[in-house]
């Protein structure tokens, strides 16, 4: 999950935890290579982008059903049963717009990326994960690490090869705490993880996590999350979604 780093909430702890120093180091070589291969940002779409409301194109990837079934427990944590299916639907659209990306990697990584929230101390999720310098909050490193453990637990039994599992964990590890993308697949997962916020369901859920009213949260999305998007397809979808959500939620009046 990603969002603004400095939003305070009523649950804010006085001193947000700092990284322990055990976090995985950033692979600058990979990050630099990806940046050099994609000098134009946001990365132009390779195909037309579907900007209709996301509920019109729910995930059609039935091959993911065994993976979904394997993590039902994990979807019960921190709104994952809303966040993950919507994010996967966005990930499918992003894969349609960037067909050179490995679709299976993007979709499985998106599905699993936040399952680690189910294996961290729930009381610390809002108190540490959504306040202060949240990107550096220890709970965020922990949910990434636990998500990798979930991936290694469920994927081999479903027939996924070790190399595939490693590609998934490389994306999950650092999906919140790393500032740079390593690959187009990594970039699409990151954008799917952000794109869902612009839908009305994302605004409803995420604004409450941050203790903000919808209008203030929508303003933050426009000012701070749109610029973080890596792909032009995500920017296009987010812009269309935000306009619809602002109109529907009457954020121009309810502020
Ligand atoms: Fe996350
Ligand atoms: Fe997420």
From TrEMBL:
Ranges for domain HD: 89-194
Top-level taxon: Bacteria
Record region (Disordered): 1-29
Gene3D superfamilies: Hypothetical protein af1432
Protein name: HD domain-containing protein
């Amino acid at each position: 999950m990603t969002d603004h780093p400095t939003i305070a909430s009523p649950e804010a702890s006085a001193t947000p935890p700092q990284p322990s120093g055990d976090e995985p180091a950033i692979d600058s070589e990979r990050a630099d290579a990806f940046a050099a291969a994609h000098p134009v940002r946001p990365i132009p779409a390779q195909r037309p982008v579907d900007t209709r409301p996301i509920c019109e194109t729910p995930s059609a990837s039935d091959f993911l059903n065994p993976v979904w079934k394997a993590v039902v427990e994990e979807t019960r944590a921190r709104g994952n049963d809303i966040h993950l299916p919507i994010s996967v639907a966005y990930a499918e659209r992003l894969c349609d717009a960037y067909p050179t990306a490995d679709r299976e990697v993007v979709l499985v990584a998106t599905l699993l990326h936040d399952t680690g929230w189910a294996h961290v101390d729930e009381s610390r999720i809002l108190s540490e994960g959504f306040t202060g310098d949240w990107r550096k909050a220890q709970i965020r490193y922990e949910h990434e690490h636990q998500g990798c453990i979930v991936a290694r637990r469920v994927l081999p039994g479903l027939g996924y090869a070790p190399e595939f599992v490693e590609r998934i964990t490389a994306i999950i590890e650092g999906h919140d705490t790393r500032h740079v993308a390593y690959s187009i697949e990594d970039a699409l997962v990151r954008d799917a993880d952000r794109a869902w916020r612009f839908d009305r369901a994302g605004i409803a859920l995420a604004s409450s996590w941050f203790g903000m009213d919808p209008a203030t949260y929508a303003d933050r999305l426009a000012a701070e999350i749109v610029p973080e998007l890596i792909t032009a397809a995500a920017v296009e979808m987010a812009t269309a979604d935000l306009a619809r959500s602002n109109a529907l939620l009457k954020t121009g009046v309810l502020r």
